[in-house]
UniProtKB/TrEMBL annotation, chains A, B:
GO annotation (BP), single: lysine biosynthetic process via aminoadipic acid
Keywords: Aminotransferase, Cytoplasm, Pyridoxal phosphate, Transferase
PANTHER family: AMINOTRANSFERASE, AROMATIC_AMINOADIPATE AMINOTRANSFERASE 1
Xref: Gene3D superfamilies: Type I PLP-dependent aspartate aminotransferase-like (Major domain)
Catalysed transformations (reactions): an aromatic L-alpha-amino acid + 2-oxoglutarate = an aromatic oxo-acid + L-glutamate
Subcellular location: Cytoplasm
Protein's name according to its UniProt entry: aromatic-amino-acid transaminase
Residues that span the membrane, as ranges: none
Enzyme class: transferase
Protein family according to the UniProt entry: Belongs to the class-I pyridoxal-phosphate-dependent aminotransferase family.
Organism annotation: Ambrosiozyma monospora (Yeast)
Cofactor: pyridoxal 5'-phosphate
Length: 479, 479
């Protein structure tokens, strides 16, 4: 299938970009009969790193991903200025200028991985490296949005992502959600009631899997419905998917307390693991209107500052022009070290890592929900085991507070604030859900929520924190 | 001295940025009596790099900077998840989220270095890390320029830097130059003749030392005169200074052919070396109106994608807000590895490196100019030994071509093109100077030039290339 021409969606900024005139000279670079005095590149002989070694754990990570690599059981990436392993990015190249899209060896790995996972139906997809999804989202706004444009956002979303967009002077159109994320019917309604004197939105920004802050994940059916709406109303879907591989096994209440419970059984094959992943918007992208922002931040480490953008080639070309005059390309150390590791692990070893990572998050999620079951007053609190990501929410009904109409003047946010403060007093910080409301947000009812994470804390701390938070809720509600 | 309030120079984009509301919660992070369930950070136990080792050369680099580190004579940066050396950035921190301004240990080194070199007179200067000067320049444009603003640029400048600015819809005001760079009197004239109905320029963008493409460097006197004009007409000076430490010893004709000539004698002390550097605009910056873009690209390696911005604190705060929602911070591997090296070298070892680097560039520059003396037809060609940087120029007088008025219709660019093509035919590529003309450029006379570099090529290749280029010039001029 071929992609649609969507160049009418580009911003003025993106349309204005031209390649550097020096590029035309670079076609002579490296020709044996030409002495090239054109480029201001330092000689790689002068780079003061001769060799870099990195020690990493070895697949299949039987002792868990937190186990330290030991003598004889480590993957050692040995990187030199010049190539030793075919799959490595030599330091003389990664530490030099060039390769804005990314080093070829790393691009190859990421493209193979993307093909394996997403099976994208339009043939014109490609990949460009980014320095992480925050930068990729900023680049996306620069590439598509002019002042006065509007963008669709989840009604609760990641404040940094919203703040990234604000200085572009865009207008936000929040899309109503429930526990399953964006409600497609509500999205369609927005267009049915659209004021024809306003331009339609350029794009939908969604954290489709393990959403921040709600922890919700869009089902395959909802994704299909949303994709159809995007085609009908001609907007892009920007899927920001750092948590995609934190999809977990089903929650079983009490499993975390069962000493005989194993998170490894039944053992899944790689094929079973991949088949169980929810299909991405990219997987549905027949027209080439999905821009997928993918990242190693939650899967390897945030500080690598390395991600990749998946989209149709013609649109990606505009990102490359932007990167040439901004970030250039991700750090050469990062590219050599990440590819050093991925090359040694191979696609199969990387899937082993993702499976082992999922196990860790499943253990933490199960433990968290079991602790919530024990400590939350069920009369006023609801919670839903997330199927992906780092976040869980605790949803409260303000109208169930005996003094809601009096002390809190029928304002759920006032109850929320009281619980936040009581939480701090008892010694637990959860983030109030109202902090994630997108601009132009309209409340549906008297519920509010808190966002917590099980990612950053060990289990014993999680238990203590949630017990304290339960106390805070009970205190405020007088239970 | 205290800096002036220059917030009236900020762009709408920069004024619109707000910090994330989540920041207010982060003041509770790490407090012993609070279980913090607020942040979506993965645990550093899960980062798949346990240890990284890097091998680098050892000061004082007696065998030159290109010598490979050998057994017993190498600096080995051994980096772990947790700290071993006080000055190291541990991987558990550098590979995690946080520290948008840069890791404290690296910031400390860079600030000490900046204080040592520039002795900035206003007390409110500070430093923020960038991912290189291209990104820092893009961030500068975002921070100060609105569509319709104008910026002062050198009449010949780096095309990528000009292309970075174009999509901001700024108007370019080229400043006339000679062999010494910007002519302060011409800059003053621009303001004397300024159309009062137009807003004055927001900033001057200058590559003050080893300018790209002309190879010129501004003298201390010119810098002082330009700084005064900036204060009088209230614009910022953005000094893009990747070549600052490629300042060379004086050129001595024929030295490269003298087998007894030593580039090490007389040996300079560190103090003599530092005192001989041309003072930067930052050194003159009493009012806090200089934004200095500094980079490791030409001094260590371009692929580290690491630089730093020096400016007054209040302005830098706006860069930090921008970085939070775009690049976040440079790669953690880069920060740990660069600081691993700099920490081991120390400020003194780093100055040793800079001295050794200067020697390499002096050798190459001297060789280049000596070869030009031998191969260029002096009747039509001029050249000037650059005092800094990677670039040299060969200036030609088109009016000295016998067929200038006829065959070339009195257009110097047509002669330039003929020589470019003849060069390619003979087997040498030098970049035509007209490719570097800034928008709105007005020619002074019938001269034109080519830019070459001695940075990227070994000496024997340089010789072959310049001989071929000399042939090309002679052929076109019929000499």
């Amino acid at each position: 299938m071929t992609a649609k021409d969507l160049s009418h969606l580009l911003s003025i900024e993106a349309k204005t970009r031209r390649p550097s005139p020096l590029k035309t000279a670079f076609k002579y670079y490296g020709k044996p009969d030409i002495v090239f005095l054109g480029g201001g590149l330092p000689m790689s002989d002068y780079f003061p790193w001769d060799k870099v070694l990195a020690y990493s754990p070895e697949p299949p990570f039987a002792d868990g991903i937190a186990a330290k690599p030991t003598e004889g059981k480590a993957v050692i990436s040995e990187l030199h200025k010049h190539k030793i392993e075919e799959f490595d990015v030599p330091l003389a190249r990664s530490l030099q200028y060039g390769h804005t899209e990314g080093q070829p060896e790393l691009l190859k790995f990421v493209k193979e991985h993307t093909a394996l996972i997403h099976k994208i139906p339009n043939e014109e997809w490609d990949v460009v490296l980014s320095v992480g999804n925050t930068q990729a989202w900023d680049a996306t706004l620069r590439t598509f949005c002019d002042p006065g444009d509007s963008i669709l956002v989840e009604e609760y979303s990641f404040p940094s992502a919203l703040e990234t967009a604000s200085p572009f002077q865009v207008d936000y159109v929040p899309v109503p959600m429930d526990n399953g994320g964006i409600i497609p019917e509500k999205l369609e309604e927005l267009f049915e009631n659209w004021d024809a004197s306003n331009k339609k939105p350029k794009l939908l920004y969604t954290i489709a899997t393990g959403q921040n802050p709600t922890g919700s994940s869009l089902s395959a059916e909802r994704r299909e419905a949303i994709y159809k709406i995007a085609c009908k109303h001609d907007f892009l879907i920007v899927e920001d998917e750092p948590y995609y591989f934190l999809q977990m096994n089903d929650y079983k209440q009490g499993a975390s307390e069962d000493p005989k419970h194993s998170y490894d059984e039944p053992k899944q094959t790689h094929e079973e693991f991949l088949a169980a992943l929810v299909p991405s918007f990219s997987h549905l992208d027949t027209e080439g209107r999905v821009v997928r922002l993918d990242s190693f931040s939650k899967v390897l480490a945030p500080g690598v500052r390395l991600g990749w953008i998946v989209a149709q080639k013609k649109l990606l070309e505009r990102y490359v022009r932007l990167h040439e005059v901004s970030i250039q390309t991700p750090s050469g150390f990062t590219q050599s070290l990440v590819q050093g590791l991925l090359g040694r692990w191979g696609q199969s070893g990387y899937v082993d890592w993702l499976i082992a990572l999922r196990k860790e998050y499943t253990i933490k999620r199960d433990f968290t929900i079991d602790v919530l079951h024990k400590n939350m007053p069920k009369d006023v609190v609801e919670f839903f085991p997330p199927s992906a990501g780092m976040f869980f929410t605790v949803v409260l009904d303000a109208s169930k507070h005996p003094d809601f109409k009096t002390k809190f003047a029928s304002d759920p946010i006032k109850v929320e604030t009281a619980i936040y403060e009581a939480g701090l007093e008892k010694g637990c910080l959860m983030i109030p859900g109202s902090w994630f409301q997108s601009p132009n947000f309209k409340p549906h009812d008297n519920t509010f929520f808190f966002r917590g994470t099980y990612a950053a804390v060990p289990l014993d701390q999680l238990k203590v924190g949630l017990e304290r938070f339960g106390e805070a809720v009970k205190t405020v509600y007088g239970l």
